[in-house]
């Protein structure tokens, strides 16, 4: 397109000019293309919502719109290849992501949460005198009082709050931490966030300069490698020991630090996921003390991802200890100097409120001058979602024993916890019965990470397809059964090993096991050496 000016006269007799646009043979180059956008974006990968999840979504659309099977594009719904006539399954099993309330997983929201949130969304229900009698028949008295208190503290959920989050809620988070750990917590060092992920990304962006190294566990949650790629920082992997129930090997960690130094990479931060994602392993107190000692000696910031702290299957055998608690129990020169940032979320545990986007982080032993920068960066985003902040409040301050809502809350949370534990154990048991699969039972979290002894012929076939062997396995599993898992290569794994990650959230566990077993046996038979 080219432009020219046309001269004319308006009604008052003044000369005016209009820009005329006419076509030329040259075509405009888009301002945004893969060569002009931030090149670091191209290095960001997030396996949990990658190729497999996209294909699973297409299958879900096809099952919901049977007319699409012949390749029509009704209602602008993207179709699969025309050769797909009919799928060999009736629904997609979303075992790829820890999203408990997702359609298909269908975890029931906690009644107490939804009652309070509904009142805060429409406070006239408890403000208008003509509605008070009605709501007293629908809502328990403690729910109404809690909603009134939160309304007094927050006001409308449609308004911005303080950039750190509502102070009253941060005070209750501090109380929760104090009761959990036995050590004081400062509300001014606590930031409410849009889920733990937002907090992790924020702290990494503040802590790391270009080229800095960050120690991450392998396997790890892809958020970390994705964020490091965007920051142009260096992931420094340390491998967890699969043969020792995914425990942390201290010598491996020391080796990772030594190699980074040898390569001239400053080791700035260390990420711990406890309980582990995708492994489900819980750290021992001794292992945690070794980690803190290392951070003290090497001047490393410790980032503790503790979003699964409620999901502990056998606390008598392997209880959850927060890094804050272990740090503060160590000698004063360590407890008062090692910089720690701990993260928690409403997305996991027994609440499963992923879409509400609520979480928090606590900063310990961070200097005042750095905390000023943390606050500045939080201010840039104005405030975390208010609905998510309310969720954090309900997570850290549930109904107390003896209150009207307690018994139902206890019943619902126990059911969620026990079902998750039973499904996890059952799935691990059946995985270990299959030829060519081994699986460490999870001690916590909501995932399993079984290892597949991949036949050589399968590895060769994967190369022909241009795929990692575990990606090919997961794609074939999806095509044959509708089960959507995540390939282990998306989390990192020891070279020469292959895994998939599945959640223990699927309500039809026996159906899942049956479909998986049939596929796996056929896969191993097809590619047997």
UniProtKB/TrEMBL annotation:
- CDD domains in alphabetical order: AAT_like
InterPro entries from the entry?
ALAT1/2-like (IPR045088), Aminotransferase_I/II_large (IPR004839), PyrdxlP-dep_Trfase (IPR015424), PyrdxlP-dep_Trfase_major (IPR015421), PyrdxlP-dep_Trfase_small (IPR015422)
Question: What is a GO molecular function of this protein?
Answer: pyridoxal phosphate binding
Q: Which GO terms describe its biological process?
A: L-alanine catabolic process
Top-level division of the source organism's lineage: Eukaryota
Q: Which residues form the Aminotransferase class I/classII large domain?
A: 141-504
Q: Which family does it belong to?
A: Belongs to the class-I pyridoxal-phosphate-dependent aminotransferase family. Alanine aminotransferase subfamily.
Q: What is this protein called?
A: Glutamate pyruvate transaminase
Annotated organism of origin: Kwoniella pini CBS 10737
